[in-house]
Structure prediction request, 243 residues.
Amino acid sequence: MVLVMAVIVTPFGILAAVYLREYATQGVFTRAIRVAVNNLAGVPSIVYGVFGLGFFVYFLGGNIDQLFYPEVLPAPTFGTPGLLWASLTLALLSLPVVIVSTEEGLSRVPRAVREGSLALGATKAETLWRVVLPMASPAMMTGMILAVARAAGEVAPLMLVGVVKLAPSLPVDFNAPFLHLDRKFMHMGFHIYDVGFQSPNVEAARPLVYATALMLVVVIVVMNLAAIRIRNNLREKYRALEN
Prediction:
């Protein structure tokens, strides 16, 4: 779920930040967009869950079922909570973090580097693609680290858009197309809530709660360490150019 979310949020976040920093006219409208992005970062996650349920599941999923799966209606295919809608909801939730981090990275690229590239005959698009974005890549990785850290621990919105107590089958298997985005899934955060607070015998379930919590923390730490390693390598690669 987190990997699908990262694949979705990265291009949209970077494109939005590039437009706001490099192409948009810096006026009242642009400032209003930045204020809106900052406000979105503070919206409670359950609100994103309600939005995901109404827009992604009922509206988009329902229309997809009517267009491509009319033969199985009224049984829903995409018009029900699943992995795709949960990933999209988390991508929307973490999008402001990626936009702000990428914008900060773009603003720190020296102006002399841009002017030098343009003076050598490169177009603005070539300068952006070959010079500015590579130098801002450590900041993009920082945004991804923060987005992954936030999304991996969210539970409230997932209870509305795809997570279940016991999934009948995994969303990943050896049957084509191998990744089944329409399936519901289990989540370690929801498992902690279910076992710890919904179990009839809380004392007996306490060791399982601790073990699941430890596993969730370990998974998040490993993903963050891998992203930090990539970010540090990128930072060392482009440090000489920044100097």
About this structure: The chain has one domain: 2-242. The CA atoms of residues 186 and 194 lie 11 Å apart. Residues 2-242 form a domain with the MetI-like fold fold (CATH 1.10.3720.10).
